[in-house]
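Example record for the data management plan.
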Amino acid sequence: MQQDHRRARAQSQPDSVSEDVEKQTVSISEEVKDDAVSPYAVDPDEERRLVRRIDLRIVPASMLIYLLCSLDRSNIGNAKILNSDAGHSLMQSVHISNGQYLTALVIFFVSYTLFETPSNYMLKRFRPSRWIAFLMFAWGAMTIILGAIHNFGGLVAVRFLLGMFEAGLFPGMVYVLTFWYRPEERALRIALILASATLGGAFGGAIAYGVGKLDGAHGLEAWRYRIPVIGGRAVVCRRRPRLRALATGRLKGVASLGHQRITWAEARATLVDWRLYVHYLTYITISVPFSSMSLFSPTIVAGLGYKGLDAQLFTVPPYAIAFVITVAVAWVSDRYEKRSLGTSISMAIAGACFIVEGALPSDSFKLRYVFFIIALSFAFACIPPLLSWLTANLHTTGASTLGVPLNVSIGQVGQIIGVYIYKSNESPGYPTGHYTNAGFLLVGALAVLGLRVRELPVKHAGIHYKKITVP
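Corresponding structural encoding:
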């Protein structure tokens, strides 16, 4: 009788939209329970309709936001070589050396690391719609200002501020998804958001190709037009991420309290869980190729025999294919609940392709281009299943608030390493870069497989949860 009463009450719950994601999570239990004994029941057809509605409200907006973020972050890579044959690239116009250019890249990741966890705390303190909107406006403004810099000091200052404002976006999005989706539903959604970065790479190359034809217009270099175009879009779209609440009773026993503050017990339990440090180290290994590909793919493509604006245009196919493969790997990982295998197999494929890429003769342009596409695609595809796997093992709001940004913050070590591995004096083959990416990916694949075979009790805040087998 009590069960029927709960079911009737759940089914009569309106689909009205409230102001914010945190409000709808107040009624959700902090303690994670076994689904088999959860008192909440929901009709499967109704649940599918609910998930579709949530998808339509959250996923497209999140994809657009992260697409703009990836464009803002990586457009410096396109600007580096845009119209370099005419002497009008970013480095030539601002009169900076390759070492200074690398410093400008690294300073972004320094501020990104410093402000990632504080930004996630602010997301929790304020409404996600307001905080993410503020971040978008701020980093869009910084990108517009970047188009007006004339010296190395200005470049470094703007890149530092850009990293500060972009820091909280991706971990914040992953954190918010834990309130809307079950663990087995997250990898595909994370993949769609992350895969929008690959679309950003594709659009970035296409935009650079078009804007490159404006070189010299009104006495300005083309890269000064390209960067404000990208940043302006982020400013205009700043009010898109208004996350609105739907009925979430189906997440009882899975999600957590939106306003619950992290306790010392939760923080301590999260910080001493050694499995999380394996995740963090693995995230470093995948961050190296993610960073190097995001920043240097136009340079690498230029080393494949494509020059001038063609080097920008030929960055489009690799990223377009990477989008499809990233989503496909995430779907399979979610469908069969084999996130660790989705991650490790993708890392192994990407690592093997980077080895082949580094070993091929520098004049084997077509073959190197094919392996570059495969390597880039699977280097991106390994990330969503890994993040979904991590969030599935973070069972409280406090653990998610601390664990997710820590994961991405520590991963910035890999992003900094990725800045330095493609050496300009090794053009066009770049063997050091390819072999370094391969080494990190293969080590990461072994770490994931090692973690997979462990069956451990999960403990958070003094609560002993059921034993789980790492999926």
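Summary line stored alongside the record: The chain has one domain: 57-243+264-457.
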